[in-house]
Amino acid sequence: MRTALNKDVPQNHNILITNGKSKFIKVYKDGKFRTEYKDDIIADILNNNLGRLEDKANELEDKISDKIMDNHRKFQEVYYKIISFIFSYTKIIYFLVYILFTYIFYN
User: Fold this and answer.
1) Is there a contact between 87 and 39 (Cβ–Cβ < 8 Å)?
2) What is the count of structural domains for the chain?
3) Does the structure show a pLDDT above 50 at 2?
4) Nearest-5° angle of CA 92, CA 43, CA 78?
């Protein structure tokens, strides 16, 4: 079932990316699009969906094999390590750009 950009599923028409290189995206809230930081929104989407996956895994734990549960736990560990690395790296880049611009504009 296709839900993204499906006219019959309007609740999925809530994120607008006008420039793929921008650090901002538009998110539909309270009846209009608002500008938000792309990293924050993507992190929220990933964490919400991971939470849904964890809830389902916990719900089905007695019904699925130990191997699948072990794979799920390994996925969680790797996911959290990767996300932590990416967002640490991104914050460092933003900080360095901030320092560079501060130096350029105030010297």
Assistant:
1) yes
2) 1
3) no
4) 80
Measured CA to CA, the distance from residue 103 to residue 77 in angstroms comes to 39
The half-sphere exposure of 82 on its side-chain side, counting CA atoms within 13 A, is: 9
Is residue 3 a part of any domain in this protein?
Answer: no
**Is 78 a member of any domain?**
yes
Q: Quick one: DSSP state of residue 31?
A: T
* 0.85 surpassed by pTM: no
Q: Determine, yes or no, domain membership for 72.
A: yes
35 band by pLDDT with thresholds 50, 70 and 90: very high
Q: Which residues contact 69 (CB under 8 A, 6 or more apart)?
A: 57, 61
pLDDT in tens, 78-102: 888 887 887 777 777 777 777 877 7
Domain that holds residue 69: 10-106
In a domain, 2, yes or no: no
